[in-house]
Write a structure and sequence with these properties.
Helix 2 crosses helix 3, helix 3 crosses helix 9 and helix 8 packs across helix 10. The strands form 5 sheets. A 7-stranded parallel beta sheet has the order 3-2-1-4-5-7-12, with helices on both faces. Strands 6-15 form a two-stranded antiparallel ribbon. Helix content is 40%, strand content 15%. By secondary structure, the chain is an alpha/beta fold. The N and C termini lie far apart (40 Å). The protein contains 12 helices and 15 strands. It has a domain of 236 residues: Rossmann fold (3-Layer(aba) Sandwich).
Length: 345
């Protein structure tokens, strides 16, 4: 049984915890051949995903080259990635010549994507989410590819449905979600055309202490802002659990591409989460609207059968977030927009 700390004191402890490899991941890396590249490592998930991979390789006693590719927002961000033990390549993934210049490695994780502000720049949204995956699928046609997608490709479903399954027909609402389905189709095309093993990760929503749906809800409660309950139900999963499953998905990449939902096992009620944060903050939540009877929900049974259940419970995450925010620790300021029902992000 995992013993969790009462609270997470600082970012260094958080980064260590969400990048701690499981014994199963270490075992996998002792067998997986080839070097590893992370395309778009500079985003929210990339640094901890790369660090977990590096730690797993070290603990497995294997010598692999790990490469992180990104535009990198700052020189400091790039140096922090290099300090993990990951080589970096700075460049624009939408530059076709840059893509062609990248070394071809055996294992590729595709993390690039555009969501925030996507409605304000739809052509760039489609370029990043659909055009770029086509370039990547062609350049890395001899690699294994694990690519992030999103549960947003599914429609809103009844709250008692148990969530969308991988076999359900995608019905993306809005151009962001449509472009993400375009990303999947490009990787599926490359997989079929070139017999490239691919795993497509439909994620909603990952959370840690600096961002995620629980942080979005907590921030509104703490700051005395009204919380709309229209999107009254959700799934979420700890970032460390996401990292573990995503890295292990190398083993299930296949041609044609395999689709895998990743999210938490519970259908959570936003009202109950808000009330719990209210108790922890000593604040009466301001709740508006009424819960609709549909929500963006996914069923992750296949992932659990393959890799086991998430190890960090939601109740523990809520307590950690409340303490983190009461102590005014750093937040990333990147809202998930989980409450959006019309697809306009």
């Amino acid at each position: 049984m995992i013993k969790f700390p009462e609270k997470i004191e600082h970012e260094e402890q958080l980064e260590e915890f969400i990048s701690r490899p499981t014994s199963e991941l270490i075992e996998m890396f002792s067998k997986i051949d080839g070097d590893i590249m992370f395309l778009g490592i500079g985003g929210k998930i990339g640094p901890s995903l790369g660090r977990m991979a590096k730690r797993a390789c070290d603990e497995a006693g294997v010598n692999k080259k790990l490469i992180g590719v990104s535009l990198f927002e700052t020189v400091e961000q790039q140096k922090n990635i290099e300090a993990i033990g990951i080589e970096t390549i700075h460049g624009d993934l939408l530059d076709t010549e840059f893509i062609k210049s990248l070394p071809v490695v055996k294992n590729v994780f595709f993390l690039a994507g555009m969501k925030f502000g996507s409605e304000d720049n739809l052509s760039l949204t489609w370029a990043v989410n659909s055009y770029l995956p086509g370039l990547v699928a062609e350049h890395f046609k001899k690699s294994r590819i694990v690519a992030f997608s999103t549960g947003c490709v599914y429609p809103l479903v009844p709250i008692k449905s148990g969530g969308s399954l991988e076999t359900d027909k995608p019905m993306p609402v809005g151009e962001y979600a449509q472009s993400c389905l375009g990303r999947e189709r490009m990787f599926e095309y490359g997989s079929k055309k070139n017999n490239t093993p691919v795993a497509l990760i439909r994620l909603n929503y990952s959370v840690e202490l600096r961002y995620g749906v629980l942080v979005d809800i907590a921030a509104k409660i703490k700051n005395g802002k009204a919380l709309d309950l229209s999107m009254g139900y959700l799934n979420t999963i700890w970032q460390g659990d996401v990292n573990d499953i995503v890295l292990r998905a190398l083993e299930i990449a296949s041609a044609p591409a395999m689709i895998l939902n990743i999210t938490g096992k519970e259908t959570l009620k936003v009202r109950e989460i808000a009330n719990e944060f209210g108790k922890l903050f000593g604040i009466e939540p301001i709740l508006t609207g009424k819960e609709e009877q549909t929500a963006l929900l996914s069923n992750s049974k296949i992932a659990y059968d393959l890799f086991g259940y998430p190890k960090v419970p939601i109740s523990q995450i809520i307590k950690w977030i409340a303490t983190w925010m009461k102590e005014e620790k750093k937040l990333l300021g990147k809202p998930t927009h989980y409450e959006v029902r019309d697809g306009k992000y």
